[in-house]
Amino acid sequence: MKDRPWGVSVYRGIIFLFVVIASLHLNAEPFWWGVSTSSYQIEDVAVAKEDPNFFKTDWDLFYDEGKLKEPKGDSVFSYTEYKRDIQKIKEMGMTHYRFGIEWARVEPKMGTYNLQALAHYKEIALELKKNNITPIICLKIWKIDLNNSKTRR
Q1: What is the DSSP string of 70-106?
Q2: How confident is the model at residue 28 (pLDDT cuts 50, 70, 90)?
Q3: What is the C-alpha separation between 147 and 14, in angstroms, rounded?
Q4: Contact at 8 Å (CB) between 10 and 43?
Q5: Residue 38, φ and ψ in degrees, nearest 5
Q6: How confident is the model at residue 90 (pLDDT cuts 50, 70, 90)?
């Protein structure tokens, strides 16, 4: 048998420990089965460019500045079609759904807040609860200092 670096044994030990712990938790009640999404990846903008609540994410700004090859696009329209998506989550038997709040939508311009967007995210959470799915909200506020950026929202 060849000599193996000590890291391989530690790695196998960690995997074994993980499998044991996971199997103990899988047999325990209740186990949360859920899905997770990122607002940037699944949400459509849902407002016209002329609308005062039109927004650009930081990733949109990166594209505008030539730092990305392709724009975001409207993805799978999960912002406007959230009831359709919640039904699919329910059909899969999921008990939890982790979704993100797009902060650029909530604060489309520095210091200006879109209360309709906050109400819409609340509506999504209530629809999840109505369907016996626990909402888990991920709030990531990562903003570019727009005063020092070439592109402004």
Answers
A1: S----TT-TTTTHHHHHHHHHHTT-SEEEEEE-HHHH
A2: low
A3: 47
A4: no
A5: -115, 130
A6: very high
Q: pTM for the full model?
A: 0.72
pLDDT category, 123, cuts 50, 70, 90? very high
Say if CB 53 and CB 116 are below 8 A apart. Answer: yes
Is there a contact between 109 and 153 (Cβ–Cβ < 8 Å)?
Answer: yes
pLDDT band for 148, please (50, 70, 90 cuts): very low
Q: Which amino acid is at 83?
A: K
* CA count, 13 A, side-chain hemisphere, 101: 23
Sequence-ordered alpha helix ranges (H) in the chain: 6-26, 39-42, 58-64, 82-91, 103-106, 115-130
